[in-house]
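User: I'll paste a sequence; please echo it back and then give the predicted structure.

Assistant: Echoing your sequence first, then the prediction.
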Amino acid sequence: MNLRDIPNTISVLRMVLVVPVAWFLLTQRYTEALLTFLIAGISDGVDGYLAKRFGWRSRLGSILDPLADKLLLVTTYVVLGWLEVLPLWLVVTVVARDVLLFSGALAFHWLVGRYDMEPSWISKFNTVAQIVLAVAAVASLGLLPMLAGTVEGLVYVVLITTVLSGADYVWTWGARAYRARRASR
């Protein structure tokens, strides 16, 4: 392993942290769940910083980094839905959007060509909103119960940004696919 592999290694380690986060939530060890989630979040910032600062970007990293983020967020949302901390309809919306994006990316790759991950500003905002909601929801489970009202408001922010970012991806990548297919004729 050389230095330029560090960001990808951090992304893989972030994927490994998904299991303890879920376990801590399911066993009502909310402080440990929150700390592990925060470590995963900080590691996301560290791998991104290293990749940009030292030019250690790679195709693999462009796949691993968002995959690690999605695994952590989707797993956390599913568990919080299971625990009835987040409404089931929100969990279904978040998971459905990610399934739609993943399916669309695969279809684009197979039918049109190479797919490079390029998150839009609304998608980045959605990810931040999802992270803030997850942290607030876990913190509200005994650590900071006063956040319960905040969680309710954040649920709707996440709903709106999830729908908007999903629609943005469909529109943007649908248009790219259309133009690419048209150009190849």
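The CA atoms of residues 6 and 47 lie 7 Å apart. The helical segments are 6-16, 18-26, 30-53, 59-82, 88-111, 121-139, 148-183.
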